[in-house]
Structures are given as C-alpha cells and as structure tokens.
Design a protein that fits this description.
Elements: E1 3-10, E2 16-23, E3 27-32, H1 41-53, E4 58-61, E5 65-73, E6 76-84, E7 89-93, H2 97-108
Antiparallel strand pairs: 1-2, 1-7, 2-3, 3-4, 5-6, 6-7
C-alpha cells in the first residue's frame, strides 16, 4: 500500500514550500520546491526554473527514521516531525498527523 499527499514542507518559521509526501513499502519521500520567483523577463524565467528545480526534500528508507513526533505551526497541529538517525529533522504539515504516524510505524514494524 502506498500513501501520497500534497503537503507543506515547513523549512523554517517563516518559509513553507509546497510538496508531495509519499510512503511505500521501503521509503518515505518528500519532494518540495520553492515557488514564487518571477518577473524580470527572460532572466526571471531562468531564475524561476533554477529555483523551482531544486528539491528541498528527502528520500529515506524506513529503517533510517529515528522518530516521528507531532509538532505545531501556529494553530496547526497536524505537523509531522520526521527525525533521521543522523539528527536531521523535517517538519511537514499534513492533513492528519495520526494517519501518517500510524502508516509509517506500520511499515517500520514489518
């Protein structure tokens, strides 16, 4: 069973990027890109293409995930905090924290 959802990657307290979170049998993957660069004619178009082509996400095997916590962003409590074994953390706003936590934990127990 695969789970996929359009999400917001909370890069910092003031920066959120649209993305897609996917879970399959072996990996959890976030594909997130900056948006909103524009103007300046041809130069702006080239900059926009460069900025939006950079993936700010990750692709981790299920075994690399150290922990999953519920975070908060303003009043939003459906924030999935995924921690890697090496200390990296990604904060992702999802539609249901519990659904994602349960789905990831089910894969980890296989």
């Amino acid at each position: 069973m695969e789970k996929t959802e359009s999400v917001l990657y909370l890069k910092s307290a003031v920066m959120a990027m649209p993305g897609k979170l996917s879970l399959n049998e072996k990996t959890l993957e976030l594909d997130a890109h900056k948006q909103g660069v524009g103007g300046l004619g041809l130069l702006g178009a080239l900059l926009k293409r460069k900025v939006e082509s950079t993936n700010h996400g990750f692709s981790w095997s299920i075994d690399e995930i150290a922990s999953i916590n519920q975070g908060k962003h303003g009043v939003q409590k459906n924030v999935l905090e995924v921690n890697h074994q090496d200390g990296r953390q990604f904060r992702i706003q999802v539609s249901s924290f519990e659904e994602w936590k349960n789905a990831i934990e089910a894969k980890k127990s296989l």
